[in-house]
Amino acid sequence: MFDIRGRTGKVVLQVIGTVLIVPYLFPLVVMVKGAFAGEGVKNFSAVLSVPGFGRFFLNSIIISAAVIALVYAVTMMAAFGFAKLHIRFREVYFWLLLACLTLPEVVLLAPLFATDTRLGLYDTYWAVILPLSALQVPFAVLLTRNFINGLPNELFEAARVDGANSLRGFIHLVIPLTRPIAAAVIVFTLVAAWNDYLMPLVFLQNPQLQTITLVPQFFVGEFSNDQTKILASAVITAIPEVVAYLSLQRLFERGLSAGAIK
Amino acid sequence: MTASSVDEVGQRSVQSAGGVGGRPNQHRRRTHRPPGLPWILPALILSVGLIYYGIGYTGYISTLNWDGISPDAQHVGTHNYARIFHDPVFWAAVRHTVVFFVVTFVIQTGLGLAFAVIMHARLKLAAVYKVIIFVPVVLAPAIMAPVFRHMFAPDGELNGVLRAVGLGSLAQPWIGQTSTALPVIMFITIWEWTGVTFVLYYAAMTQIDPAILEAARMDGAGPVRTLMSIIWPEMRGTTVALAILGAIGALKTFDVPYLVTIGGPNYATEFLGTYIYRQTIPLDHVGYGAALSIILLVVALVMAVILQWAGRDRKARD
Predict the structure, then answer these.
(1) For the domain with range A37-260, which CATH number is right: 1.10.3720.10, 3.40.50.300, 3.30.200.20, 2.40.50.140?
(2) pTM (2 decimals)?
(3) A211 pLDDT above the threshold of 70
(4) Is residue A159 within 8 angstroms of chain B, CB to CB?
């Protein structure tokens, strides 16, 4: 579509594109260049040899995996219920859920802090896993419900005729057929959980439990503002995300822009 | 109704559907659907439970004068809310949010659209460009914050480049002065989210019927005219969705101003999110922070409803 004919037009567009891309590339160049400044590769070995550095990755993996598992399970069930089963006042429940879409997480700080301390959840993985999952579920359900709505009712009726109860229908129809939308849900849940900063900042004080988004502050303390080490730690923490994106480009692009497709 | 009668009804309806040669039978009795409440319950407990509990609790705290720890919180009624309306920092945060939304939305839309058009024209290195634009979407703002602090520092890379190309007079302490701090926050946000805008516009453009574009060309419309009169109006749905996302995103803004400028200097980059955090955690004004939270929540809901309604209204008029 929209093809530009003629050499001049092509060259002009190429120049415009290149000029526009420079501001996007610049911060990435600054990051990598800064990380190799001064002592060069030694910055990286210094960062990697800090005891407990791997722990941040492990914590992020544990928290993200738990959030994904929880969001996936409750989302698939709820989307199936909303789309294909009988629920009185169905739309009331649905709107209760949708109203949570606009909630800024900062609103939950004070009540969760007070409740977590009372229940002994403060400074545990759960203090981060539960609110992060709760915030992801409404949107995940919206997307998945729309998707399951598009599956033919006859499929579910036929299964019922064959004597399959809802659970069997869920396992043998919903789970396999929702794979494309599940991939999108998993990708945006992963990125949201992996990149979240506020929840770990407030609810995780023990460095043994902290996530990779708290790494920069940790290193500001560790290297008393040696910029090159801090940038090296930024590069190291960014690598898994960039690799994940590069190997699953289409999935990431679809999953992360799903926010605007209704 | 018993399970066996459900099955019977289901069986009959399937048979009758088969009887008319597979055509959907309009008068077929609808099979009775099994109950779904148990299926949505876990999601409701997790999300609605936790979030509404939090909101309710925040609403209660907002009527207290409380530091978050002491057992004797005073009930002050609506005093916290009354204070908000005379709080200059609150109004500054609102102003920043509005400016931030308008500027980032307009620029991001322009850039996303430009990239989408350019990539559709089969540019050289298009795949590489796409990766460069999209990588920021994936990277955590918290991870990038030190990079931006470094880049915009007085002796940072940006000023270095300006001096190197003979624009040294433009070099300035970008994040240290009130006039440029907010633009820096906006730059970072645009840098972060253009990838999503681009991907959506790119996808929306592929959906446009090539026949319409061909017809426009036959009528002598140039590329710019085609873009303005056909492509842009066709993508209105995408633009509205992006506006809603952008507005809610602006209200949620926290990571970037908190980590890059700490809301400063002199509150120049204070947003509602950072202000609530500042009041609740470092200042221990938990009651006041809760009242701010409730205001933020109401604004977010009203905004979502207005934008949703505006988008639908447009569509209906077309």
Answers:
(1) 1.10.3720.10
(2) 0.86
(3) yes
(4) no
